[in-house]
Write the structure tokens for this entry.
Amino acid sequence: MIAVLKKETTDRQIHDLTEWLESMGLKVHLSRGDYATIVGLVGDTSNIDRELLESLDIVESVKTISEPFKKANRKFHPEDTVVEVGGTGGTGEGGSEGRSEGGSTVGCVKVGGGNFAVMAGPCSVESRDQIEEVAQAVKDAGALILRGGAFKPRTSPYDFQGLKDEGIELLEHARAHTGLPIVTEIMNPNHLPMFENVDLIQVGARNMQNFELLKELGKINKPILLKRGMANTIKEWLMSAEYIMAGGNENIILCERGIRTFETYTRNTLDLSAIPVLKELTHLPVIVDPSHATGVARYVKPMALAAAAAGADGLMIEVHNNPSKALCDGAQSLTPEQFADVMKGVNKIREVMK
Amino acid sequence: MIAVLKKETTDRQIHDLTEWLESMGLKVHLSRGDYATIVGLVGDTSNIDRELLESLDIVESVKTISEPFKKANRKFHPEDTVVEVGGTGGTGEGGSEGRSEGGSTVGCVKVGGGNFAVMAGPCSVESRDQIEEVAQAVKDAGALILRGGAFKPRTSPYDFQGLKDEGIELLEHARAHTGLPIVTEIMNPNHLPMFENVDLIQVGARNMQNFELLKELGKINKPILLKRGMANTIKEWLMSAEYIMAGGNENIILCERGIRTFETYTRNTLDLSAIPVLKELTHLPVIVDPSHATGVARYVKPMALAAAAAGADGLMIEVHNNPSKALCDGAQSLTPEQFADVMKGVNKIREVMK
Amino acid sequence: MIAVLKKETTDRQIHDLTEWLESMGLKVHLSRGDYATIVGLVGDTSNIDRELLESLDIVESVKTISEPFKKANRKFHPEDTVVEVGGTGGTGEGGSEGRSEGGSTVGCVKVGGGNFAVMAGPCSVESRDQIEEVAQAVKDAGALILRGGAFKPRTSPYDFQGLKDEGIELLEHARAHTGLPIVTEIMNPNHLPMFENVDLIQVGARNMQNFELLKELGKINKPILLKRGMANTIKEWLMSAEYIMAGGNENIILCERGIRTFETYTRNTLDLSAIPVLKELTHLPVIVDPSHATGVARYVKPMALAAAAAGADGLMIEVHNNPSKALCDGAQSLTPEQFADVMKGVNKIREVMK
Amino acid sequence: MIAVLKKETTDRQIHDLTEWLESMGLKVHLSRGDYATIVGLVGDTSNIDRELLESLDIVESVKTISEPFKKANRKFHPEDTVVEVGGTGGTGEGGSEGRSEGGSTVGCVKVGGGNFAVMAGPCSVESRDQIEEVAQAVKDAGALILRGGAFKPRTSPYDFQGLKDEGIELLEHARAHTGLPIVTEIMNPNHLPMFENVDLIQVGARNMQNFELLKELGKINKPILLKRGMANTIKEWLMSAEYIMAGGNENIILCERGIRTFETYTRNTLDLSAIPVLKELTHLPVIVDPSHATGVARYVKPMALAAAAAGADGLMIEVHNNPSKALCDGAQSLTPEQFADVMKGVNKIREVMK
């Protein structure tokens, strides 16, 4: 951390400040200039409140040098984290070889460290037929994880809020049917018991800074899919991952899903440059959701290909067996045929990326 | 709601669409043009999923005409809502005349409909001395409600998270001491029992779309201070108010606290034009928090005056008895003397605004 | 300027860097830490290319301490600049007492340093009757400068582009008629001869970084009204002022007119916090244009009052004698009666601000 | 165009409005609802000023249905435009087979309609050796067009402004040497004579709405590379293309180069979803500049691959023979070796995209 002092700061004031900072266990390096004095703080600056320091009369500005995230930081954990979804992750039984459930074996899907995984399924779970049909279709096309919304965050209280616990049960049926691990969104820490058999728990964009929820998810050992808030910086996103990791749960997959900008042709602006930035800053896997980012089915394919080419560890794509009848977000869902076409393109890109 | 159909839509398709829409109880008005056919939907369109309609192959675009918020809408409730904070609002005892507590009478403060209220106090509650001292100071300067953070939403899990229930108790002491009703932030619906004696419950910017929390707050009858999310539109903000109101609690005060933009000299960009926009769209009172918006103590006064001049129903201002020792956000807090100066200026503006 | 070196930088590399920087006449202060080495550069760092320094392999980041604008910087020019518009400013004749023209004396209007000036008039100059009628009306209400567009920057090539030189002539007629100095927008340095008799030359938001135009305006001695680009930071805005000032013309008035954000109820988001920020950073006067910022006539009054309360040195407001017939931007223009009402309110605010 | 009238509009008012609209040659379709009356306008609505209509007292809102750009619109020009750069395009001599210059034949490079072209070279032209060396290196790696800045738009007047006409001459030397057509930026319509031998004229992001410059470029028949303004919507961008096309010059290549958002790890946020959006809206070719968008050399490769995968018609990439000595933007330039590696990756992606 560096503090720049105002030109008019007296020696006495500098002395007092130095003493105070040293009392917090820091080494202080002074560099006096014609226009400003620079105070370099070396040591563990996490005890220092940056804004407090900035508020001092003699301080012109404070600049942080090191990143505030520790457990998510690649500097202290250079190898890629590989998150395992399903298998033992789901219920504690089985192993990385997958576990048996219903007639199928639930796969153990690796994400990150060179393992690419596509999660696909409908925006909302609507009925047993629907989810099983879509599950089979996306599995046939190459998806490894089944997605489906049971609890739906809707801007309006008057819109459909999801089938809730019944939706989760339907997802479990589809898992038993196909062997695909399941991912679905949580909105309330009190709902955690209902998510006991969910393989990957999703935190949606609107809850990225719901710190109370993140803290609870830090106490379990299930993998978490953490979506980026629609107006949150990469740093804030990693700090939210840090909230979960600080509690002990380091199985986190990050998901870029578009940020809010002034452009209106797409619902949000997909920030694909976040992929190489994150690959540098963190060891956690990063996937991309082109369906929510663009909000338009016909833009999903080019953005899915682009995400794969940019180095993403996976994709999350909305697929519906009949988009025109979807109860929500229909306009952004692909048909199973369109999804199969996307998968073909993505596989080709993945092939040449090796 | 208006749907614009593509040029190449056939008569048959238009007929099917019309029939389907009419089956949902709507009147359908067709307007055929050379370039497009326009379908006007008249009646209760709340059953129609806009995105579903947009996803249909024959539909070029859908435009909503009426606002999606109902209970918050001024059209259906032309008079200003006046929210009462404290008095009976706090604990159920007492009346709009205020109630007795400790040695003091807790005032009943009206916000909205011409009633202007300033809420002031420290960012975080730190100690009994601190909160009582600040409470007395802001009361002396003209504040009507005491603010103070007990639960603190912090970007980093390693930062101070607030004194929690102990902080609320200290606020209650300060209320007993000064008679000022208290406002503090809630982050978790499970904490509601701790907020039983809080007069006004704040929902912070990061939780504006924590719909599960909003639903719980809709079930109580205590007034809610709903801050705008830092990247949320006015419409989304009103929809979040609608979440609370749909549950039955219509005592909501909106608080503008700056939005995220590309400008970096201020922490956020205070959107004062939201005030006249909201005055038009809704009957709910609107206050402004210039402390969090700018993040800089010396910009608080001009922005407080501007907010008053723009027609705000109140202000929320951070005041600390010793900013340089604040545990958080010190750089944006005013001293009691500076706050008294702001109040003088605000009162003068209020005077000429009548 | 501060450069933070990577942890793994060798002594040899640090030595080479230091030598290179010292060869450019800088004093170099090293501060070695456990995690990073900090290089403080003291002296005239304007020769250093910041991005070049950042590109070096051993450099983690570079932070600038002092502001890059010099002539616009309040640090080197603590007193407010007062810009004089009209009088001698217009044509070289007359004095600060105003000059004679037609039947009227053209006033010399001071802006800044406690002098508050309102500029008002139609978006576009349309006809002699129109501009003279509006000019008289805004003068009667208290405006000191007449605005009117002759060259119009329109998003579409098919929209009305202004009356051009004929528009300027009509403005001159209206000036002769009322004695109000005139302000109008320039879009092309080649048009400068047509602006010889214009009292204040406006650079519009879209041309804020048209550096070729700014350079030409630096060579003349006429006051310039520099509008903020709709997505430009305050720092970039001041650098654009610096472009003009570097050429020798220091008569600049800054005009905040709203920035582009995600909010859509207003055309742009008026950034009133820019006023106190600019008051701190620069000695140049700052005015506010609430008409373009909001794009809605009924929001102009609250935003005009707020701007005055926030400490602006003036306002620019669109007034039309018949908004519904305006050829452009009609929806944001006030009638003369509405404008007179705004002026009354603004004057009251100005009164209590003293 | 659709106008929604307020509920309280009288029959008389509707009649007057209808008559006025019909007098402008439009067919008017009325649709009366319980909450609003909808006026559908069919015919050529380009004469209607949307904002004027919105300003009428009885009008609640106005919605446009068709796009305001005509010549750039794919609806009226379904096939892809192929822009030819160099060959006859450069000087009028030669043919699409290329022309002779110096010892080399200057190629005719096609962009769009399946033709993918990479433009590469240094940010600024610095010396004959530099530009010739880089030109040869990028040619060897597979670039088809040489880029290099002669006139540089710099935020600060104190920064290096480019070698100007001398820079263009050096580019011409490099063209003679390698046969690569050249692209360089224009900032002032008065400089056009200096650009007579430039093959492709670039309009930079800051000048995207410099309408006076666009108009002049509409009068020539040389291809134009139009970069997106950093805070401009896709619609505004196409309107700027329309400015050039309206003048008669339809040889335009669009270049996405990142938009301004709140994220700071990258200089701007590359909006790759603009590619499929533009492919739908317009027939003009679209290329991507990952160097300026990210501002960081090590993010250029993933973003270049992503752009190719998303369907771009080409790339513009900064390459320098020695990034650490670049006079500007060094941090974002690739070495020739890095560029060759990017080209290899891009070619592989292009291969599987067929």
In short: The first helix of chain C runs from residue 11 to 23. Confidence is low (pLDDT under 50) at residues 89-96 of chain C.
